[in-house]
Amino acid sequence: MPRKTTIAASVLAACLIGPGAMAAGQGMNDAQARELFASTCGYCHSDGGRQAGKGPKLAGTQRTDTFIVNRIKQGKEGAMPAFGGSLNDRQIKGIIHYIRNLKSD
Prior knowledge:
Blueprint: H1 3-17, H2 30-40, H3 46-49, H4 65-74, H5 89-100
């Protein structure tokens, strides 16, 4: 399934899931943030971000939220694609909330 279709399906699913624990007041519940991370970031950040894969381990990161927002939006040449054109601020905040709440195994 093409990435844009996957993201659109994830966003649609997020809208249909209904009420739940909201991810730090960001308008996205924990399940929606987890699904968005899995469909957008999970290919490179293994085990839901708990282990390094093609991308680094994200659990326990010391990077600031501002750094993470910029990396998601702008990417890193040769290492990470930019998602600024496909993810909105609410989605990015949900992903950051998800990352901040990861527990290392």
